[in-house]
């Protein structure tokens, strides 16, 4: 084969390698991420959450302060309806049945089992307010 043709083929391969690699990575990302997001309305709750609960029902008994604290510090992992988003133990719909007030307070303040502690981010009064409300979830 002619040396100029061989060089031309190698140059073409190099030019195509990056776009082909980027396309493959993009397609793989789309496939992986397609499983993320909101489940369909008919999908079963993955962590035993109440399918019929709504945000208003979940927040029953919570003062405005507690609702604000929950939205700022808890919602991303525990969900709008307390259903839990990152594992079965993050479901708070009946946390007062599983844990005592002292255990709830300690979990909020110190964290553990994958949960960060909020003892340095929330005041003792804020932790107590969240604890009192969560303890009623039975």
TrEMBL record:
A Pfam family assignment: Cytochrome_CBB3
InterPro entries found in the cross-reference section: Cyt_c-like_dom (IPR009056), Cyt_c-like_dom_sf (IPR036909), Cytochrome_c550/c551-like (IPR051811)
Keywords: Electron transport, Heme, Iron, Metal-binding, Transport
Keyword Heme: yes
Domain Cytochrome c, first and last residues per copy: 61-138
PANTHER family: CYTOCHROME C-553-LIKE (PTHR37823), MENAQUINOL-CYTOCHROME C REDUCTASE CYTOCHROME B_C SUBUNIT (PTHR37823:SF4)
Entry protein name: Cytochrome c
